[in-house]
């Protein structure tokens, strides 16, 4: 057989052939051998087509060459297999002919035979220990010389005793020959042999693979050569037992191995199935396979094939999946042990090896059986490649999503992008430059048109050329030094990426790589903020420059080892740099997490002051990364708990204790009550995308406005979701781009004015609540709220009155709400209340208010703020920052007209508020100076508190002298009472079942309408006295009014609030009026402790027929 071999690529000389280019294989001549050459070519073409899915053309050629090399191997294997099958079939045909003769002529027990028991026993022992061809002649001689007609059944059992023990599978033919010889000698031997086969198979343990496999093959061979009849043979019973899928899993796997052994030899003879491997052999040889003449009956073949195929299809996939799952579970256990303890114990390692070996054997068995039965091979279902194999089943609840779950690995999206979205140089740099720099690549490229010099260079020319090269090298070295300087100062991700691209283009040589690694490794110990950019640079070049991360890691690990041995207290900064650098490299997956965890464990083993501080730095750098990465979660958690116990047990300095506690709770905050998360609807996700991403990213603001206008505004949650995400400033808002929210609301106000009003009203409520809570964690949110409020004024969505209300609210002029706290009258009211509170006479507020000259001449109180206002601590300066932020945002428009005077007035109060804080930190003072210089360059900041009080007192005195505060007070009081009356009407209408309360409210409203002026009142509560003899204070005079009051009280009237004021016209008389408690509260005669709720923006209701601003603001 001559088989053409494809020429190998390269190194083949001029002829292009390796070793002559033609391989010759000698074999016996066979029919159709002349077709071997085209068959081999077609097989080579098919194999080459399978390898044609690679992208590179070079790979295609190489794979095609490899496939061509496999063709002669396949042909040689097919030829050898064909010869073996022909030889076995020939021997099998001969034995079948012999058995047919015995069947036709009958058994012949003739000759002089020994019937002694000793000889028969010796013969039986020889059958029990029969080993095959080596003893075949001796056994046949004994068969001819012994008469064991009385022991035929025992002879069959002796042969079965040797089957699978002494008689191996390769000597199967010898056993068949012995049985054929005994059948020709003893007439009933076939029947006894069938019974012995069934008895032997049933008596063999299910786990005894070798013996059961031999018995099945032995039974099949005996049936094929007709040594035992098919009808009486146990072949079908044995196969039913082997294909029973209800058997245990281990037994079923063993049974499939036994069936695979039979199918590999007799797939056609026993099952009438052509194996796929045989088809490939026929194609490689170019001729049909040898014909099988010794076969079972078609009915038995069909029955056996159905049993085997059904069992394979029903259980093969399950067996493979179960074995694969057990292997994966053991891999999880080993991985967890490797992370938690640093090594896997011998028991689990052995178990993993056993499971892996069992899975491999099962896969091999099923693969062979699938080829023999021509059935598809099942494949185990793989896990999610993105899912970790560690900690998936231990600590997880059943698909329970948790809101506000454990802190994620990264603090925010920007940090996540910095560490995860690393540049891949091959996307922006040519492949040739990834290994050598641009200049090296240019050296290797041939230059077209380059010719040799016409004459040799002179000495002077050589010197000039040497000097030029020297200068070029010096210039290159100087440029590279500048490059290293820029690389050592890069901080942002973009700067790092640009540095990497420049290095690959210009400086990619071995020496420069070494220099770059040394520059990155030698970062100063005080410049810790550069460690993260350096780690990103190393991670970017790591796939293509293995020496850079290798050099840095080697140096850091050496420093770590030296650091663990030495205990020099002066080198703490160097230790911190080394530890934090390793942690940064760990987050970029350059340093293995095990190095960090081992280092952390060593620090805990020797928990000295230095090591305790280094533990804090480890947790600050990559504690969250290690704790919330599944592979390292458990071990990190254990080390954290151990560190916490050591901190409590050791006597550490206060500074280190604070560092450890801060680092611990930063990594593992206290667990709060968690609520099950609700899946967001698609519309909510779309609104979140618009408000949180596209609003800040898209340049076309009109496009965003159109998208918002197209939302379903009627009978939908869309407005609520939009308001939520617009005002969720602490999560998504970029401080410099907050004006985009105001711009969107400005455009939306023309179409959805009610929604814009609601958003602004909610923003003011949020400002009020954050001021009341005064939580330091909300400081960034409060700054953004002030910034957004100023931007709303810039886009003409709020009036200047709202801005001044917020400004005065920040410095303490607001009570329960910020409504009208920027009014001129508010400062005078606050001053009066402060003076009254200082004197301790709360009932004399109105009397002092009447004496304006006395109030104006009094010095300002130390804390000039509304008594109902929530005051901050004296050392809390944050409201100063809020005022400066709001003024910097929109106060540059307060440069003319009435708003200019309002701003000048506020700045006097603001300067005085700043002085009440004592000595401010420098950054706050600079902030105040910058704000005043930007708004009023000519205004000088008062040097002392007395200097700040002087303009405020003059201002208040001038306002009392020039303005009619009484009329302003009346108008203000009337407005507030009307507002409260409307609120009372709303509350009364909502409570239908409280009729008595409604009547009482109506009476109170009628009493309030009669008098709209502010009254000077003194409470006159009589209380429930036993004899009603004690009268309220102030009601003991002899006037008619007092006598009427006493008469009413004596008759059992309810004690009321008495309000009195001077008569108009300059007379000395007074007017008195009785108020119930509810009416007195509305008239502000007594404090009102009930909670107010104002409708609309700023508390003023919006009525019909008013414009956008007029329906909003009280101006």
Characterization of the model:
With 1115 residues, this protein is an all-alpha fold. Helix 1 crosses helix 2 (57-105), helix 3 (117-128) packs parallel to helix 5 and helix 16 runs parallel beside helix 18. Helix content is 61%, strand content 2%. The longest helix is centred in the N-terminal third of the chain and has 49 residues, at 57-105. It has a three-stranded antiparallel β-sheet. The protein has a two-stranded antiparallel ribbon with strand order 1-2. It is built from 44 helices and seven strands. Residues 1-68, 384-407, 438-455, 841-856, 982-1037 and 1089-1115 have low confidence and may be disordered.
Topology:
Blueprint: E1 2-3, E2 23-24, H1 36-50, H2 57-105, H3 117-128, H4 136-145, H5 152-162, H6 172-185, H7 189-203, H8 209-224, H9 235-242, H10 249-271, H11 276-285, H12 298-340, H13 346-373, E3 402-403, H14 413-420, H15 438-444, H16 459-489, H17 493-506, H18 510-521, H19 531-541, H20 547-565, H21 572-587, H22 593-605, H23 609-627, H24 633-649, H25 654-667, E4 675-676, H26 682-697, H27 701-709, H28 718-726, H29 729-732, H30 739-748, H31 753-773, H32 779-794, H33 800-810, H34 824-839, H35 845-850, H36 852-857, H37 878-890, H38 897-916, H39 922-935, H40 945-962, H41 965-990, H42 995-1010, E5 1016-1019, H43 1040-1050, E6 1057-1062, E7 1070-1075, H44 1077-1082
Antiparallel strand pairs: 1-2, 3-4, 5-6, 6-7
Helix pairs in contact: 1-2, 2-6, 2-11, 3-5, 4-6, 5-7, 6-8, 7-8, 8-10, 10-12, 10-13, 12-13, 16-18, 17-19, 18-20, 19-21, 20-21, 21-23, 22-23, 22-24, 23-24, 23-25, 26-27, 26-28, 27-30, 30-32, 31-32, 32-37, 33-38, 37-39, 38-40, 41-42
